[in-house]
Design goal:
By secondary structure, the protein is of the alpha/beta class. The chain has 12 helices and 8 strands. It has an 8-stranded parallel beta sheet with strand order 1-8-7-6-5-4-3-2. Helix 8 runs parallel beside helix 9. The mean pLDDT is 97.
């Protein structure tokens, strides 16, 4: 049995941090890392969807990870998403991540071309081979990647001893059950969709990785505590309020991550910049939504903490 305890719990997806010119800000990356350390989360998932990875260069993503690692100093479990839409760049990021001492690397499948499963497996194994001393997490997000992790592909990937589990962001919670039942206790399944945090946990996920955790980590930590204690009705009450906050944030004209960054500036005095084009920036008509969502978070924290 492998020791997977460092992956069990609340792991926020790290946000892209830009300066006023829209370039990666090492200082803001470090500030966000300190924020997560202070909030007491289990770890961070760096350079994934919430980190706007597909709109960043290889060098951008290296800068982000280097500054996270230097600031975290072992106080957070760090999972580095290294997938690019080609093997060469993904391998380069995998090697770089291992050189920094991350706990695990992760990768979505290649997007755009619909590759056969044996080619997807080869892609993931090539990435994993580039970081031979580092755990590997499969990232299943079919609604964006355009390809799903099938049970057959998962079985093939478990032949790789570095594969420790799946970040499952498909919407059916049944997928979590199927992956967990097939893999057993020697693998970890992360719940991906934030709106079903407790649902995923109940059916078998031992941890969660999510893009809205960072704007309200206390609420997800409280849900995690309640789930572990079997106090499901209390956890469900928080989940309902969290979901209302998520729906409100998603109702803006601008991208949800720009809403999140605006809320963090209001509620936590944390300035992370905006979002990178072609993601849509906030408009003036979005500001009432930002204000309302920020107040909803403050109200929920007063209610539950």
């Amino acid at each position: 049995m492998r020791n997977l305890e460092k992956y069990k719990g609340v792991i926020p997806a790290f946000y892209a941090c830009y300066d006023e010119n829209g370039e990666i800000s090492p200082e803001r990356v470090r500030a966000l890392t300190r924020y997560f350390v202070e909030k007491g989360v289990k770890g961070v998932y760096v350079n994934g969807s919430s980190g706007e990875c597909i709109y960043q260069s290889v060098e951008d993503r290296k800068i982000v990870l280097e500054n996270v690692m230097e600031e975290a100093k072992g106080r957070l479990t760090v999972i580095a998403h290294v997938a690019c839409n080609n093997t060469k760049d993904s391998v380069e990021l995998a090697k770089h991540a291992e050189s920094l001492g991350v706990d695990a690397i992760a990768a979505i499948p290649p997007i755009y071309f619909h590759l056969p499963e044996h080619a997807i497996a080869q892609y993931w194994n090539d990435i994993s081979d580039a970081a031979p001393n580092t755990d590997f997490v499969i990232y299943n997000i079919p609604q964006l990647a355009g390809v799903a992790l099938t049970m057959g592909l998962f079985e093939e990937m478990r032949k790789n001893p570095r594969v420790i589990g799946v970040k499952n962001s498909s919407m059916p919670v049944q997928d979590i059950q199927m992956f967990k039942q097939a893999a057993g206790e020697d693998y970890i399944i992360f719940n991906g969709p934030d709106e079903q945090f407790i649902s995923g946990r109940v059916i078998g996920a031992e941890g969660g990785i999510g893009g809205t955790y960072g704007v309200m980590p206390e609420l997800f930590l409280k849900m995690d505590e309640l789930v572990r204690a079997g106090r499901m009705s209390e956890a469900m009450e928080i989940q309902y309020d969290v979901n209302a906050i998520i729906y409100k944030m998603c109702s803006a004209h601008g991208n949800m991550y720009d809403v999140i960054k605006a809320i963090l500036k209001k509620n936590e005095d944390l300035d992370l910049g905006g979002v990178r084009k072609p993601l849509a920036s906030l408009t003036d008509c979005d500001m009432p939504i930002v204000e309302e969502a920020a107040e909803m978070i403050r109200t929920a924290k007063r209610k539950y903490l």
